[in-house]
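During data preparation, a discrete fold description was generated, as reproduced here:
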Amino acid sequence: MIYEFAVEPALVASWHDRSAYRFFDGKFGLGTKRALCRFPGKRWRRLVLGEFQKFFTNPEDKAKKQAAKKRLDALIRHLEHGSTQRNHSWNQDSNWLDCALCEHARRPFQGIVVLQSPDGVDLPEYILDATTLSEEDMLWNPPARSTPREASELLTDITPLLHHVRNIRLIDPYFDCREDRWKNLLLGLLDIAQNGRAADESITVEIHTSVDREFDRNRVQDEESEREEAKLLVESIKNAVSSVLNGQTKFYVFVWSDRNYHTTEKLHNRWILTETGGILLGHGLDTPGKGTDDPSLLSKNQWEHRCSIYAKESSVFRLVRQEIISGET
């Protein structure tokens, strides 16, 4: 899946040297299994640049410093794509690692990556030392598994993702909260995604479903019957989630159709799309079910393509109904 790592500003600053960055090149961002967390969000860039100054204390290195600063600025812009941000109260006397540990206690990171572990200090296993880090580290590189089609099992797999994202799109053309096999997973997902958020940290959840499967059994599909079915779908979702949504969650439902419409795409596959990447689900979001599923990470190009299709302004499918359950447009 996709895991969030807090990365020490001093480590990022060291990446002005491409040899220091070599191991981490391509390891964070869209299409990878890791999201770099800019922590603390509002000060992260400033802290990185402050640490950068410590690498160039000799006035005679001015030209070398300027070139390194240019490389670091470009790298920071690159790293910000597909990254996350967590805010934290801060003062000049704060120690970054101590603050990261406090934040981890509030809402866990997958790991905290530091430039180098302090000498003589016994640190938790989720503190990862950049000087010794390798792909064999299972915290850094968690192995994929075949996931049993139980709500608890799928939620276990996506919990690291739900902890750090703020925008969640659930795409399943068969999604229907009139049946517990979809409703139970959705309620569990909302519980995880909303829990532990800061007071100023809102999230957005979208359900993208379809009416088409209701017309696969010789039932006439016309505009009136589509509207009636879409209304029932939306009402079932609203009834399921209204009592569990908190004031920080915006919740939207989109009901689509690919019939009687000129499109080369088909409403069939199931995805979870977020700002840090996307996951393809072979079977769907309904649980329990027979067997196992192999959730697969989307590449950056695949993620961009699916995000453009499943958007409120999209014209790839025909929009039957759009409903705001909680939040504003």
Summary: The chain is about 35% helix and 20% strand. The first strand starts at residue 3 and ends at 7. Residues 58 and 268 are 61 Å apart (CA to CA). The first helix runs from residue 9 to 14.
